[in-house]
Amino acid sequence: MTGTTSPETAVSSDSPSSPRPQIALGSTLRATRDSGRKLLMPYVTAGIVPDWLDLVEAVVDAGADAVEIGIPFSDPAMDGPTIQQASVRALDNGITPHAALSALRDREIAVPLIAMTYYNLVYRYGTERFASDMAASGLSAAILPDLPIEAAGEWLAAAGEYGIENVLLAAPVTSDERLAMLATNTQGFMYTVSTMGTTGERTDLDDAGTVLARRVKAISDVPVVIGFGISTPEHAVAASRESDGVVVASTLMRTLLDGGSVEEVAGQVRDMRQALDAAY
Fold first, then answer.
1. Whether 68 is catalytic
2. Catalytic entry in 34, 54, 61, 68
3. What backbone phi and psi angles, to 5 degrees, belong to 140?
4. Does 200 have pLDDT greater than 60?
5. Is 264 known to be catalytic?
6. Domains in the chain, please, with CATH?
7. Where residue 52 falls among pLDDT bands split at 50, 70, 90?
8. Of 51, 62, 35, 45, the residue nearest 236 (C-alpha)
9. Which of these is catalytic: 57, 79, 201, 242?
10. What pTM value is reported for the model?
11. Is the distance from CB of 276 to CB of 40 less than 8 angstroms?
């Protein structure tokens, strides 16, 4: 990962900030789901704007049930143009994995936090060190889309030691046999992908995600959340008919990339929250 650390995004390695408590992802989401509320999980790229921590707090205040924190990586293979641009912006701002994790120690966030990044970065950082620093920063779960579970032994051991839950992804083409294995091994929730391809804003939402969510629910009680392309309140409502909720990412980061404010992004999340609450 390239780039230097800027004053806006950095916290020095000798920062006196103390570790933050982790909020368990799986039990929190299950309790929320069982209460009848649909899950809403916004994504925030760490370092995309100098006040990105204010953004995390703002989306929580707007109704987020958990927040994905994107740890920028220079080659995010699963992500489409918007998240790629968000990562480049953050790297240009000087964010580093250590700075992102350290900065989170300075905030009390009221919902579970999930690190979304790539195993190449984790490996370079140091697998056990990354898990330890995640836990100290209050993150309770990780999404590593480029790490197949069959090759995840080292990471799973480190994550387990520090109480990090691992969220697995399923795609519309996932076979029944593999889907059962993923549903058994995922922690926190099952991330079901609404369409084949990369992340990004979309005008129309593919119904493949709802079909996949129905398949997971037929074999498991794990919370099922749909991501990829959730761009409007209408999308969020439609995707939640057969699932327990949605992840929303690219449309929020696009607002920031186009010069929008933290308040505007929070407003997008609030609109989705209100739509979900009204529909269900």
1. yes
2. 68
3. -115, 0
4. no
5. no
6. 25-279 (3.20.20.70)
7. very high
8. 62
9. 79
10. 0.89
11. yes
